[in-house]
Amino acid sequence: MFSRPAWAGPGKVERFEQALLPHLDAAFNLARWLTGNQQDAEDVVQEAYLRALTFFDSFRGADGRAWLLTIVRNTCYTWLRKNRPNEVSVAFDEELHTTGPEPGNPETLALQSADRRLLATVLEELPREFREVLILREWEGLSYQEIASVAGIRIGTVMSRLARARERIARHLHDRLSKEPKSGL
Amino acid sequence: MGCEDAQELIHGYMDGELDLRSQLEIERHIEKCEACAAVYQVQQRVRSAIAHPSLYFQAPAGLDRKIASALRKAERAGRSPLGKSWPKLWRAAGVAAAFAIAAAVIWMAVVLPRRSSEDLIARDVVASHVRSLMPGHLTDVPSSDQHTVKPWFNGRLDFSPPVKDLAAEGFPLVGGRLDYLAQAPVAAAVYRRRQHYINLFMWPESRGGSAKPGPQARQGYNLLHWTGAGMNFWAVSDLNMGELEEFVRLVSS
């Protein structure tokens, strides 16, 4: 291959990578929670990046993360419709519950693991439409407006889905949350 | 504000998504209402629980390099990455485009010329009718007798057009005439209804010049076209369409 002349500036792929590879974690986390599987998430994310490159000319550089997450989300649903049309539940993922730093004494550690396992299960059991709104809000910190645009729903729907998702989690964790508010959960 | 409204809006409040007025209303409500304050506390804990980093899946090491290499490969191949990932979609789009083009070509190559040829014949039929009404042009063989008119066409045309005497039904035969339509000689039988003349043009279907059967109006004349017994028929007159249709029923029965 010929190298690109200096006056041409960075090529399309270079500009694309600069703008969008920093959001790889956000893309992967969303894909991982929506597919429920490590390998599928990797495939979906790679496919989403390839799609994004095709549409890169239409990207105006406003917010690369929300733009990319929209494509990741759509790629996820296309993939799910094709590969798991009848899927209802997600298999329990051992890896999720054995990673992460675990400070403190063994007793606290056990309690925290149990709480997080419960929480992860509750999250996995949420309908995808609720889960994705929660992920975009709690981990990506997107505004309601951005979430509405990523998920293709109205802002009012964003708030009601968030409310229902959080209430459901609160119900499931009710005992621990009320009895041991300082358990570190 | 009621507790039900407040507990839905609490989420907008926590997320800083409410307008200032609603924000203050919720704040005041939580200060006064113990139940809603408890919900708020629980929801705050839910939020911080979810925010725990162990629930966040970081991209596995090496995925960025894998993607970077896939991107370059796609770009180098100079083809749309969609071509691989979305073959069905693009194939469907291609097929749809091909159909649209084919439909346009058929429209232009077949339907439009046919429409204009239909148009042309109808125009010629009216022109012939108008010309026949000029003095001395109506008939070559003036006769109200079908047994005179019909044989008259023999030797002048290579087909034998049906000629009926419909005097009893109020459409007396006036005579016959040779005319020229659709680039060939045709038979014209002339009938009359009161003071209105009717030209009935006839020629074999095999010669072409068929059009969509049915009535139409043109330059104040009514036209009726139909086919039957291997013949093209065009009836044209300044007679009203109702009576022209009656005439056609009688002729074709």
Blueprint of the fold:
The complex is a heterodimer of chains A (185) and B (253).
Chain A lengths: L11 H9 L3 H12 L2 H17 L9 H20 L22 H20 L2 H11 L5 H8 L3 H18 L1 H6 L6
Helix pairs in contact in A: 2-3, 2-4, 2-6, 3-4, 4-7, 6-8, 7-8
Chain B lengths: L2 H12 L5 H13 L1 H17 L12 H15 L4 H4 L1 H46 L8 E2 L3 H8 L19 E9 L2 E10 L2 E9 L9 E5 L2 E8 L2 E7 L3 H12 L1
Antiparallel strand pairs in B: 1-2, 2-3, 3-4, 4-7, 5-6, 6-7
Helix pairs in contact in B: 1-2, 1-3, 2-3
Structural account:
The complex is a heterodimer of chains A (185) and B (253). The longest helix of chain A has 20 residues, at 64-83. Chain A folds into 2 domains: 10-83, Orthogonal Bundle (Rna Polymerase Sigma Factor, Chain: A); 101-179, Arc Repressor Mutant, subunit A. Chain A has helices at 12-20, 24-35, 38-54, 64-83, 106-125, 128-138, 144-151, 155-172, 174-179. Chain A has 185 residues and is mainly alpha-helical. Helices cover 65% and strands 0% of the residues of chain A. Chain A contains 9 helices and no strands. The radius of gyration of chain A is 19 Å and the shape is globular. Chain B has 253 residues and is an alpha+beta fold. Chain B has 2 domains: 3-53, no CATH class; 110-252, Protein Transport Mog1p, Chain A (3-Layer(aba) Sandwich), CATH 3.40.1000. Helix content of chain B is 50%, strand content 20%. Chain B has helices spanning 3-14, 20-32, 34-50, 63-77, 82-85, 87-132, 146-153, 241-252; strands at residues 141-142, 173-181, 184-193, 196-204, 214-218, 221-228, 231-237. Chain B has a 7-stranded antiparallel β-sheet, with helices on both faces. In chain B, strand 5 (214-218) and strand 6 (221-228) form a beta hairpin. In chain B, helix 1 (3-14) packs across helix 2 (20-32), helix 1 runs parallel beside helix 3 and helix 2 packs across helix 3. The longest helix of chain B is centred in the middle third of the chain and has 46 residues, at 87-132. The radius of gyration of chain B is 41 Å and the shape is elongated. Chains A and B meet through helix 1, helix 2, helix 3, helix 5 and helix 6 of A and helix 1, helix 3, helix 4 and helix 5 of B.
